[in-house]
Amino acid sequence: MEEFTVEVNPDDICRSAGEDLLRAYRECGVNRVSVGVQSFHNEHLKWMNRRHDASEAARAVNILTDNFGNVSLDLIFGYTGLTDGEWEQDIRKASELGVQHISAYQMSLDPGSMLSKLADKGRYREPDEDVCRRQYFLLQDILEDSGFEQYEISNFCRPGFFSRHNSAYWNREPYLGLGPGAHSFDGDRHRSWNADDLSRWLECAPKEGETLNDADIYNEKVMLGLRTSAGVDAALLGDSAGHNLSFDAATGRYSIGRRDRFVSDTIIRDFLKTD
Q1: How far, in Å, CA of 114 to CA of 117, rounded?
Q2: Which domains, and CATH codes, for the chain?
Q3: Where are the beta strands (DSSP E) in the chain?
């Protein structure tokens, strides 16, 4: 089945023009919607500078599930102020709203972001790693008990509802990016990206790009493949697999164990080529 996904915020759906927006999506052939809920707690949404509140988040998801048979919901965990109890409530609320897919990401300090600037000034401190690990395990356990499959480090779905769009990235399939800052890939060695400035893009500024060497390709296959539950073919890693991976004799593939996915970046780093 073809997949046509759009990303929305809850306030896009709940505002007065929301029905017109949904109608336009359906007429364009959209059959999957991803909604950026992030939290069902007002104090955390306010801290994140989100325009919606918890009630709008739930209402938007209900509207979307009434209109589309494939809805994905985004959540964020691992930030100071979020208690385990609140995070559990977020997960259970998300799983009970009838969505087919849930993506959950740990809060990170991206260079140049407002949160990173606050941290530099001593006004924000990331939570202890043990807290983040505990919240990640809560995510895994609750969603598994609710019938979701974890098919990637941050992504969970009802059986058969994995994201075909994101899976194309993880499988290194060709894709075409349209619009400012969009990336394209030929599925082999060549990647390019459009100017990220809207004015330059409208002026048809030339694309930038890169050609991957053998080490780049190997690193991408390892990094992207080990993010998924399917893992990578044993032949790719050879004798370097070591004890940090699980081996499935039936498929001949290595993958990162369920609990070890929390430290996947550290595990993956050990397999990357630096030359």
Answers
A1: 5
A2: 5-167 (3.30.750.200), 179-269 (no CATH)
A3: 5-8, 32-38, 71-77, 101-106, 149-152, 155-157, 183-185, 190-193, 208-211, 232-233, 246-248, 253-255
Q: How far apart are CA 247 and CA 174, in angstroms?
A: 28
Order of strands, edge to edge, in the sheet holding 232-233?
Answer: 232-233, 253-255, 246-248
Residues 6+ apart with CB under 8 A from 111: none
pLDDT digits (tens, 9 = 90+) for 124-138: 899 999 999 999 999
**Upper half-sphere CA count for residue 137 (Cβ side, 13 Å):** 10
- CA-nearest of 250, 188, 244 to 221 is 188
Q: Residue 26 corresponds to which amino acid?
A: R
Q: Which CA distances in Å does 227 have to 26, 34, 159, 275?
A: 32, 20, 18, 22
**C-alpha dist (Å) from residue 257 to 153, 199, 261:** 11, 46, 6
pLDDT digits (tens, 9 = 90+) for 207-227: 999 999 999 999 999 999 999
Whether this prediction's pTM lies above 0.85 is answered by yes
Nearest to residue 7, comparing CAs of 73, 86, 83, 75? Answer: 73
Strands 71-77 and 101-106: parallel
